[in-house]
Amino acid sequence: MRLCVRKGAWRAMWDDARARAPEEAVGLLVGRRGCAQAAWPLANASPHPLVHYLAEPGELLAALRRADAEGLEVCALYHSHPAGPPRPSERDRAEATWRVPYVILGLPEGRARAYLLPEGEEVEIRVEP
Ligand SMILES: [Zn+2]
């Protein structure tokens, strides 16, 4: 399995993650034909946003409706680790419910990786023009 992300969406996702540090950012990567073309940030509603994320449910629902209305698919869910590596935490695994890849942006390393969770199988990310 492979995750395709257009350069614009890739940049927007990183910009969002950096802008929200030291809190964790969260959002959706949406696109068409298996390639993400936009990053849609979602509010982090976790009471502990420095170490955890929780997509604000109302915003998430609105984003899913918008994607549906615009004929876009959810390609991945992303969140950031402002102070840690781009590896899923125990909690990331325990709370995973989506069958799309989870992209984790590790800010100190400046590197993002993607996984199927809770299994932890890594998904290759391909950034395309
Ligand atoms: Zn995490």
UniProtKB/TrEMBL annotation:
<dbReference type="GO" id="GO:0008235">
    <property type="term" value="F:metalloexopeptidase activity"/>
</dbReference>
<feature type="domain" description="JAB">
    <location>
        <begin position="8"/>
        <end position="107"/>
    </location>
</feature>
<keyword id="KW-0479">Metal-binding</keyword>
<dbReference type="Pfam" id="PF14464">
    <property type="entry name" value="Prok-JAB"/>
</dbReference>
<dbReference type="InterPro" id="IPR028090">
    <property type="entry name" value="JAB_dom_prok"/>
</dbReference>
<keyword id="KW-0378">Hydrolase</keyword>
<dbReference type="InterPro" id="IPR051929">
    <property type="entry name" value="VirAsm_ModProt"/>
</dbReference>
<protein>
    <submittedName>
        <fullName>Mov34/MPN/PAD-1 family protein</fullName>
    </submittedName>
</protein>
<keyword id="KW-0482">Metalloprotease</keyword>
<dbReference type="GO" id="GO:0008270">
    <property type="term" value="F:zinc ion binding"/>
</dbReference>
<keyword id="KW-0862">Zinc</keyword>
<dbReference type="GO" id="GO:0006508">
    <property type="term" value="P:proteolysis"/>
</dbReference>
<keyword id="KW-0645">Protease</keyword>
